[in-house]
Each structure stands twice: as C-alpha cells, then as structure tokens.
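Input for the complex:
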Amino acid sequence: MRTVALAAGVSIKTVSNVINDYPHIREDTRQRVLEVIETLGYQPNLSARGLRSGRTGAISLVIPDLRNVYFAELADSVMAAAAKRGLVVMIEQSGGDRERELEILRGPRMRMVDGILYSVLALGQEDADLVDVPTPVVLLGERIFGGPTDHVTMKNVEAARAATEHMLATGRRRILAFGAHENEVIGSAGLRLRGFRQAFDSAGLHHDDALVVDVGNWHRGDGAEAMRAVLASGVAFDAVVAFNDAIALGAMRVMQEAGLRIPDDVAVIGFDNIEETRYSLPTLSTIDPGREEIAETAVRLLMERITGSEERIAPREIEVDFRVIQRESSTVTVL
Amino acid sequence: MRTVALAAGVSIKTVSNVINDYPHIREDTRQRVLEVIETLGYQPNLSARGLRSGRTGAISLVIPDLRNVYFAELADSVMAAAAKRGLVVMIEQSGGDRERELEILRGPRMRMVDGILYSVLALGQEDADLVDVPTPVVLLGERIFGGPTDHVTMKNVEAARAATEHMLATGRRRILAFGAHENEVIGSAGLRLRGFRQAFDSAGLHHDDALVVDVGNWHRGDGAEAMRAVLASGVAFDAVVAFNDAIALGAMRVMQEAGLRIPDDVAVIGFDNIEETRYSLPTLSTIDPGREEIAETAVRLLMERITGSEERIAPREIEVDFRVIQRESSTVTVL
DNA sequence: CTGAAAGCGCTAACAA
DNA sequence: TTGTTAGCGCTTTCAG
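Predicted:
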C-alpha cells in the first residue's frame, strides 16, 4: 500500500480512501490510484484490515454434514446469499454431535468470522442460553425456539399438516408417519408429527398409533431399514408421509424391492425437495421448505446484527413459507 | 492478551509462548497462564495473528458446485483432512465457468487463505500458466497436467479401462461409452474414453463408434436426456459404462421407464462411488476414485508448500488408486 | 526461561 | 480534498 501511494504520488490514506470508496476524492486522483493499483497488482491484506476494522468479511455456516444433500443445498444457497454481500463462507461440520456443536461455537475459529449461521441437530431447547455468544448468531432449524438469537425456520407443523392433507385428499387413510422421534416435542420430528396428527384430527379421523414409525437418523439407509421392519411386521398401509426426502427415498427402494407399486399401492410424500426427488423413479412428491428464502433471510438478519446499528432489537423468529410439490409418487391413479 | 499477562504476572511474550507451545517454559508458569486464560475466557485474535505471522490457518477449496454430490463429498473429505491439521476451509463455487474460475483465483478472497485447493472444470491445459499465483495451489481434477503446481488426480485411464473390462468379462459386447465430450483429449471425459477404448483394443475387439454417447454436463438430467436420445435412435446395446454416477443414475431411470431390466437387459457401471449408488434400485456398480485419499494427499501437499521449507521442490503429479465396486447393476445373471 | 520493544498493513481521527 | 499519526493484537527479534 505504501508502494502504491509512493508510485501514485499520494499518501497512504488516499489509497485507503480509494479502495474503500470514500466519497470525497477528486476523480483524477482516484483514477491515478486505481491505475497504479492495477499495474502493481496490489491487493489489500485482509488480515490487517480485519485487525483494524474488527470485521473479516467471512461468516461461518455450522451444519451437521455436507454429505447430507439437504445441507449441501442449504450451503449452496447460503453461499449465494453471502456472495451477494461480499462475504465468504466458512463451513464447519458438527456431525450432529452435541459436544462438537458446542465446541465449534466456542472455538477460536469463530473469532475469525463476523457472524455465525448455526444449524444444529443435537442441541435442544435447554441449551438455548449456551448459544448466547459475543459473535452475532442466527439460528437455523427446529431445535431451539425463543432463544437469545434470531431464528429462521420453516413452518414445520403447517407443512406436515399440508402433506398429510394431500394424502387424505387422494383417499388414503392408512398413512405412515415415517420418521418420528419418540418423545420429541420440539425438533423437526416432533413438529412434523404434530402437524401430521392435526390433519387427521381436523378431518375428524382417527390415526392408528401403530402407523407412527420411528426413524433414528433420517439418512437414506435408516429409512430403508425402518421400512423393512414395517413390511416385516405386516402392518397394512396405503401411504407414507416421510419427514424428509432421504428416508422417503430409502423407503421407496425397499417397497419397490418388495413388489409394492408406487403410487398405486402406496403413495409417498417427503420433505425438503432435494434435487434427487425430481429424478427418482417415480419422482417424489415433497414439501419445498423454501431453502433459498431461508438462506437469504438468515444472511440478511446476520448482516443486520453485524453492522449492528440496531443493537438492541429483540431476537426475531421468522418462519418461511413452504409449498407442497406433487409428483408421480402421489398421483391419483386414474382408472 | 495484555490483560492475561497482567493477571498472571508475566509478560505478554510469555503468554504468547504458552499459547504457541513454545518448549522452554517452566511448568508452573505455563499452568498459571493457562488458568488465567481459562478464567478470563481469553481467545486469541486470529486477524492479528494472521497479520503478524502471514498465516491465517484457512485454506480455500474451489469447486464447481456443492449441489453436485461428488463435490460435496469431496468437500467433506477435504474438511476432515484439513481439520486434522487445525485448518479451516473456505469453499468457493465457480459454477464450472472459466471466467469465474480465474476471477476467484485472482480475487482478494484468496489473500485471506494460506493455500488453495483448486478443482476446475472449465480451465484447460492452455491455462496452465495462469494458475501460477503467489499463494500455494494444489490442483485437482483432470483438466491440466504438467502445470506449475502440485496436482492430485485419479488414474482415469486405468479406471475406465478396468470398468470396461469388467463389462467385457460379464460377456457384454455392445457397450455404450456414456458421457464423452467430443474432441476432448485431456479432461475426465477424454481420459475415460481413452481407457474405455484401450479395454476393447487389448481384448482384440472392435468398438462401434455409434456406441460413443456425448453427454454435456454430467448432471443427472443430462444423463436422462442422452439416454432418451439413445433409445429413440434404436441403437442396440447391452451395457453402459457411464463416466460418472449422476448420468448413470439418470440413464438408469430412463431405461427402467422404458421397460429395460438392469442388469438383465443392460448392465451399468458408473464413476465416483457417490453415496447414492449404494441405495439406488438396483444398486449401482461404480469406480471408487479414492476420494478420501485424494483429499488427504492434496491437503498434505498443500501444507508442505505452505510451511514451505522445501520451497524449490518441483511440481508433483500424484495419481491415487481406484477400485472397481461391483453391485447389482452389473451382476452376472445366474440362469 | 522471561521481558522489552518493534512492526506486520491497514483504517480512523484529526489536522491541514 | 488530502496528509499525518496512532494503534488494532499479535509474534519476533534481541537482551537479559
């Protein structure tokens, strides 16, 4: 920078002003400085800037696992939203492990970023206070509500209810609630099960508890395994509301192997609208959780906290809209 | 840090020594300092450290697209390898666009990291010199060989040959080379086609050029589309060697819709061993490219360049071993 | 084994 | 509109 100043015949400060688009600079001075920067190939040292200004231009995205397509797609959307604002994204994987989720939040790495998008699986409502760290945090997901930070999530209850009503509308009655977590009230599984039940209740129908299926980890293999157990148990069903796409796809595979036709014998709907649902055989009906809007909103809220003129604004809870996407797996069979 | 030094009754330098595990410190001094750090909740300022030491502890991973499962899994492996060395990873997506790939490399963001893992799709051999930037770079992928930087890749030719030989061994002869790029010599498509042809040549068999199928982008949808065209053309075939898993899966779907049985009518093998291949129906035979080893090796080489005692070592070309993974899609049908 | 002092490259406050 | 100066928090000589 000193070299640039020298070569352009101005002071260091002027160079700084040019770089930062400080408004009051004579046009020819600016041009001269820009030229010199170009010819010398000068690039600002981000560490120094970070040290001085207290801002690094990076945010962190903490997620359980990139190999999980939902989170890879979320990361993609977050990076797009961040790039629009000139931010880079550092991704940290927690593996959905509680200790690791906390460790990451407290770790020195988080000092390298201006803010944190924090998508947790293991932390729960009782950990709300632990999320209160000096760095701005925007929480994602369904594990903690009413915590000390901004929170962006989807309308889980309503979405699950809509998915279930979609199944009821096609005439199905023996519907699996596929992906429950026993005793969970809050969290994706708990909320989605609640929405599922609401659909039955308000239709004045009874739902057989034998049709509530626990699936531990919501990976494809878990869905496959759980479906095998269901088939082995001999319980009768004509539809599946799966609480995410991965387990829906795993379950579909097992049903097809067992000779069940989808949607003729069993209709299926998932959750997340991952890309693969458009290409599976049959294509999978699902809930679009508004991933891009979630990412965009989360980054926006985080930026507001970072630039922080509104220091004392209360934590905000934002619920993004969803859409029911009907595909082959829940088509009404025309006879 | 000053506060810590004060509270512990030592100098700033001593605190720094403790933090950096400088060897010659009396044990009780170290303990005292560590205690104070703990109680005060001190955390070092990474920007300042970066400014002073010239190292930030971050590396960048430049990839085309996280939504592409192969790259998401690669990113996962890279992050694991980086975490082992205390590094954090910044991911940049290029979209496989040439301008963007170059822009990223030259951008100010790259000043925030100690090194770059650079996985390009659009850049080609003729761009080799452009990759020669001051920051250490390790190149991934098949677009540039013999460039100015270290390079880690898989044995593409050999792997494609092995995949094809696997098909030949199961008695197939009308084998589609699925995913070619016309006129490409280097690059994944070119190399894999070369390996494909080698298998035929050394078996003394002729391969019908009508069975070489161009697929532009190697996304699932492209594979589906290309397979539709093949079926419409009426050309006969009994096996598919697809140059990646995504197009293999897309093609499988189309074949199944068309009533072809896999592997009975058509055997299929892909490339990449993405997780989904273990769960598709049927499960997909594939080439395991040694993703973890690629990531581990790439990070190791990069670290060597960063710590850089071996400044003048010549660029290294490393080819990682692959494995043929046989699954349902290429099982020999027992009659 | 520990302390003092310099300076990494930048921006903010103030002065001219 | 531009220049001068101080200092962000740390590591690194160099002395003790």
